[in-house]
Amino acid sequence: MAVQSLSKVPESFRKCRVIDRAGEAKSIAELIHERVTLLLFMRHFGCIGCAEHIATLAPRFVELDQLGVRIVMIGCGSPRFIEPFIERQRLVGEPVEVFTDESLTVQRQAGLGYGHWGGFGPRGVFEQVRAFVRGHVSGDVEGDAKQQAGALLIDAQGIVRLYHQSRSLGDHVDHVRLVDAALSVCLNANPELI
Amino acid sequence: MDLLLHIANLFLLISFSVKSMLWLRALNILAGGFFIAWAVSYSPPIWSSVAWNILFGLVNMWRIYVAILERRPPRLSAEEQRLHKAVFSELTARDVRSLFDLGQWENGLPPEMLCEVGTVSPRVWMVADGEITVRKADRMIRTIKPGDFVGEASFLARKPLAASVVIESPVRFLSWSTQDLERFMDERPEVASGLQRILSACLVRKLDQVSQAA
Fold this sequence. Notes:
heterodimer, B: 8 helices
């Protein structure tokens, strides 16, 4: 069973394990347990498109955190790349946790795209140039360059409230749509708010 | 006559070295003037060059005019300036002007029901002066003070109100139709993110109040 919008996350996805920078493994079930969680899937840790994506989303992290959203980033490189990634993307002190899954099992279970086309097709190349012009730089390939990104907002009951599969390197989840979904989840969890 | 060509190119060169877009355009217009003078003085005159340089000049003049207009601060009344500073400081004065123009200022007198429990709120209200009361049955749940919003939860979650919104004392408020606000946020994503921040901050304050009361 695949991950779908407005459905409960499948058990196969909940069972997937990701590794933190210390090499400790955690299951997705633990990460999303009884809390609204945003799972942000990166391509590889040196990806220019992901750098652009993080720069757009970072100003909203505190706001999401205040709304009770746990922000989890998942890459696909070795755990030793996590620390430099956090530093390079200026995520130090941000309410964000970074994990990785080199086996790509979690990305596969999340139904994310995989292939060269997303990064090196005409659209991907155009988006690489766009990100470069915006001041982002591409690092070494720290993971699998064929892995595409995505985002899942899962509520405290384990239901997917927003599901975005990136078709290419610069196809990011819209931050306005994302915060809108988080606000909606927060309000539905607190019906007394008007 | 080659001197005119050299002067034109010199201004062009200077225009490329300046950082300000306004100055770049102004120097380009000046360069264009010398190009035209050179093209006219040529024998026979190069009319195609004259025509192209007139066109470049017109485009540059139009962009300079728009840029100058955009630099002018919009007019905000004393009340609007106060709200801009207190509530909408995330937004620029120009964006706040657009947002205020979209809304409707009203003076509410009691007793008046703004929206009944169980209905999807057609508007979002923001209190400017006085207060609006939120009631469920006969129980007062909270009062909405100046600078706070009501109806925004129904708007954001697209769900019916969990309580009624009533006016129990004279109040001045600004309100927006949810349809207009949604369209505005769709059309202006850069303003939408600022507005989202303001509304989520208001919700976080309300959440704190609820948890403190509990």
